[in-house]
Amino acid sequence: MTSLTGKQVLITGGCGSIGSHLVHEVLSEDPEVVRVLDTNEKGLFDLQKSLADEAPVRYLLGDVRDQNRLKLAMENIDVVFHAAALKHVTLNEYNPFETVQTNVEGTQNVIQAALDEEIESFVAVSTDKASNPTSVMGATKLLSERLVIAANTYKGERETRFGCVRFGNVLASSGSVVPLFMDQIRSGGPVTVTNPEMTRFIMPISEAAELVLDAHERMTSGEVFVLKMPALQIGTLARAMIEEYAPKYGYNNSDIEIDIIGARPGERVHEKLISTDESSGTRELDDMFVILPQIDAAGYDAVNYTDAEQVSGEYTSADTTLLSENEIIDLIESVEGFPEE
Question: According to a count of CB atoms within 10 Å of the terminal CB, is the N or C end of the chain lower?
């Protein structure tokens, strides 16, 4: 039995890569009901098909920009996992205000609906791009984090706990590099690499979803939980995938060329989960770090972290151990249903 057993749970962005896996993970905790809110009609239909008819899931078509829709979606909810966001770095660079409307204003709308309903707990899903952001997407996700943490300061007598979870790239998620490389190899190449020296944090979707729930169990109020993740170099990823998968699609390894195309707008060479400025307020746990609230977050309890060591510096994808080609392939093969033939 967990804190989700018998609860009514709302997952925004529940058709996305993280959101849909959160749906499955939450269902395994025996909640009373899971409401999935998303703008993606086909995604809701596909999710409904993938789940048993008797699953206690309600499929809600709606946008976090719509306060009235959120008010209805939030009725009688106990726990919110907020995963709805615009996440494509380059598209966000060309559509900055639309990104603000969803990632910033949309997050505040969800927070307000949660406060109005006086729910028990609220966990927002964030990204490594929020740490010292250099992109529109990262900047809006940092603001989203700050809105969630600040909600603990004006909740009044409500006992709602607000916190965030921050992690890097999710393996085989929609729009990510591994499915792109796979499609390019399947088509005979070339494999388009922005910069072979680029490094990225990476983890399977299932593991990311599990750790979101773990963070929810640990949260008191105001923390940002940063999941520990392996990292890889993009050039190593491309070479490993060509060597492993080109023969499976009828090509010699030498048939598939690598085309260096340069960084796209908003991209940085190395990702950062914890910045130098954040490190003084960060503590290390077994499988994650926790950035402690730097403002007076009502409900925050430091007792959970008194024995944890302070982090001494930033945590970037360049400074962690990089996966080898064999380890990369093992990680890809660990994802259920991927790669598709």
Answer: C
Average of per-residue pLDDT across 285-290: 92
- What tens digit of pLDDT does each residue of 42-75 get? 999 999 999 988 899 999 999 999 999 999 999 9
Measured between its terminal Cα atoms, the distance across the chain in Å is 39
Distance CA 110, CA 135 (A): 23
106-133 pLDDT, tens digit per residue, is: 999 999 999 999 999 999 999 999 999 9
Task: Enumerate the active-site residues.
Answer: 129
Distances (CA, A) of 231 to 32, 170, 270: 37, 11, 10
181-207 residues labelled b (16+ CB within 10 A) or e (exposed): bbebbbeebbbbbebeebbbbbbbbbb
Tokens for 184? Answer: 């390019």
- Phi, psi for 328 (deg, rounded to 5): -65, -45
- Cα–Cα distance measured from residue 46 to residue 62, given in angstroms and rounded to the nearest whole number: 16
Tens digit of each residue's pLDDT (9 = 90 or more) over 267-279: 999 999 999 999 9
Q: Give me the residue spans of the domains in the chain.
A: 8-168+203-228+272-313
Superfamily of domain 8-168+203-228+272-313: NAD(P)-binding Rossmann-like Domain (3.40.50.720)
Query: Biggest alpha carbon distance in the chain?
Result: 66
Please check the confidence at residue 233 and state whether its pLDDT lies above 60. Answer: yes
**pTM summary value:** 0.93
C-alpha span between 9 and 243 (Å, rounded): 44
Please name every residue paired with 182 in a beta bridge, in sequence order, or none if there are none: none
